[in-house]
Amino acid sequence: MQIRTAKDRLVWVRVMGQAVRNGDGQIIRVHGAFQDITEKKQAEEALRESEQTLAALMFNLPCAVYLFGQDGRMLRWNAEFENVTGYSSEEIERMVPEQFIVPDDVSTVRARIAEAFTSGHALAELRLLSKKGKTVPYIYSASLILMEGQPCLLGVGMDMSAQRQAEMQLREQAELLDKAQDAILVVNLERRVTYWNKGAQQLYAWSSEEALGREVADLLHAEPNEFQGAFTQVNAAGEWTGELKQQAKDGRPLIVESRWDLVRDDQGQPRSLLVINTDITEKKRLERQFFRAQRMESIGTLAGGMAHDLNNVLSPIMMAVDLLKLNTPDSGSQELLENIATSAKRGADMVGQVLSFARGVEGRRDEVHAGRLVDDVERIIRDTFPKNIQIRTNVGNDLWSLTGDLTQLHQVLLNLCVNARDAMPEGGCIAISVDNITLDAHYAAMNMEAKVGPYLVIQVEDTGTGIPAAIMDKIFDPFFTTKAVGKGTGLGLSTSMAIIKSHGGFIRAHSEAGKGAKFRIYLPARSVAQNQPAVDEDSKVPRGKGETVLVVDDEAAIRMITRQTLEAFGYKVILACDGAEAVTTYVEHRQQIALVLTDMMMPVMDGEATIKVLTKMNPAIKIVAVSGVSASDVTAKAAGASVKTFLPKPYTAQTLLKVVKDVIAL
């Protein structure tokens, strides 16, 4: 009971009384004692309040809460736990925690329970298994408490389904961004990269690990003023679009069409930049070719008109000189007239070159024997060129016939040889070769000027000083020359190109500074097969026997057409877009792959590195190195004996199939 003391204080007491009776059984007095239990009652009240608070928390928290003893018996749980598991209160009372867990997670849960009973706390992720078999991802925290003096675990679990769904969506979005061909990157306000997709890895050859955290301008070797202007514009307007000149990790110059968008936070404050870059390097190169062709056409029209007028001026001079020679007997005048005639003829020859360039060289077309053409030019240059220049010729057997103007083709070949001579002031070697070649759709797809059919290819190669890369695009421009004043007109190569185009052909030049130059002239020819009934081309081309070829090239169009060609002639093909993928693919299919056909110039992992890794994995591997740059031939050979041959781009299907067949047969 509760009593009030003399000091007006309420206290709880425990009252104990005993009656004392007489012989007749009547109560004569009572012995009693009071025990102060105020503190005990206060403790009981505090415990009751604590239990009420705990119960309120358990039954009102939006997460699952449960309490179980060391023997595994479930002691308490809230309504959310029943909702998640789907079991009734009566069912839960007879169950142990492990029965609510996916079987694969039971061992982990046991370890965490033991940890909590030992250290007082544990945290783990698990999958709850409902009564209906539904799996729910959960994260739970367990803490050790005392319940009626016995250790128990209080567990609080949170449903992670929404978070896992959000994470899955983020992963899917990231995968979609990685599948994009464009380079997509995110840059923070400090201009450092925070996101770098696979498209960016392929374009710039920087891996994600290398790019993240780097300052974007330094990473892409961007021109500072261009980048600063773009940042200023995007900060002011929220977006910017334009072209930027950049550089890949391997030094490749790039031109990209760049789109920048300013990303803001919930408060509208700038947070980061989303940058999408599209590689337009090849597009710009084709544009330059187109504009160059237009420029040459315009200059040609102007030059043609000027040449026509100059001919009208020179013709009467030359005729008048001849008449004056007949009527002027003294030697002094004859010598003077001869000088005038020589200068006028030289002027007429120059005008002829201009006309050849301007009008596409209209002339008589007859059957031309390429071997005889080379013999004539060889004889001239052997008699006239310095003795420290060696001349080598290699004329193929059974050359196809060619229709053209012998004089004009003679002029083209002589122009190239003279340029080669001038590039070797200390002497060197000029090599001239002629051979048949059939260009197919495979080759034509890589060369916009080429058509499918037979061609004669005439090659002039020297060991001279070479042509700097900076002027390679200008060497066929009219009046462009690197020779000293009086040493050249700048019309030699432009006239040669005009002559070749007028014959339906095209010309290709390749050079590296200090490593000589190589010019290849392609002229349409008439093969013997064209004069005979059609023969099934497939019967001439070597076919495979089901061998597997791994084709490695970063150009999707080349991968596809190479695959189609090889599969059409009996081979199985596996594709890889770069060296890293090639190595992974080779590990998976090593037993099936008979040959590896790899490009040398690729992002992420180039051909040389790929060859070295594959050779280390299998010293007996057979590799064909491919490149549009002939210098890669040296690189490929240096990579080891596994490189059986070098295949220069562009190549015909017949050349590809012959090389593949020969290398597999080794």
Total beta-strand segments: 25
Q: From the alpha carbons, calculate the radius of gyration and give it in angstroms.
A: 45 Å
Mean pLDDT: 80
Alpha-carbon distance between the two ends: 109 Å
Q: How many helices does DSSP assign?
A: 21
Helix coverage percent: 40-55%
What does this structure look like?
By secondary structure, the chain is α+β, with helices and mostly antiparallel strands. Helix content is 42%, strand content 28%. The strands form six sheets. It has a five-stranded antiparallel beta sheet with strand order 5-4-8-7-6. The chain has a five-stranded antiparallel beta sheet with strand order 10-9-13-12-11, with helices on both faces. It has a five-stranded mixed beta sheet with strand order 15-17-18-20-19. A hairpin with a 5-residue loop joins β2 (10-21) and β3. The protein is elongated. The termini are far apart.
Short description:
The chain is α+β, with helices and mostly antiparallel strands and 666 residues long. The protein is built from 21 helices and 25 strands.
Topology of helices and strands:
Elements: E1 2-4, E2 10-21, E3 27-36, H1 38-60, E4 64-69, E5 74-77, H2 79-85, H3 89-93, H4 106-119, E6 121-129, E7 135-147, E8 150-159, H5 161-179, E9 183-188, E10 193-196, H6 198-204, H7 208-211, H8 216-219, H9 224-237, E11 239-247, E12 253-264, E13 270-279, H10 281-327, H11 331-359, E14 366-368, H12 370-384, E15 389-395, E16 402-404, H13 406-422, E17 428-439, H14 441-444, E18 453-462, H15 492-502, E19 506-511, E20 517-524, H16 537-540, E21 548-552, H17 556-568, E22 572-576, H18 579-589, E23 593-599, H19 607-617, E24 623-627, H20 632-638, E25 643-648, H21 653-665
Parallel strand pairs: 15-17, 21-22, 21-23, 23-24, 24-25
Antiparallel strand pairs: 1-2, 2-3, 4-5, 4-8, 6-7, 7-8, 9-10, 9-13, 11-12, 12-13, 14-16, 17-18, 18-20, 19-20
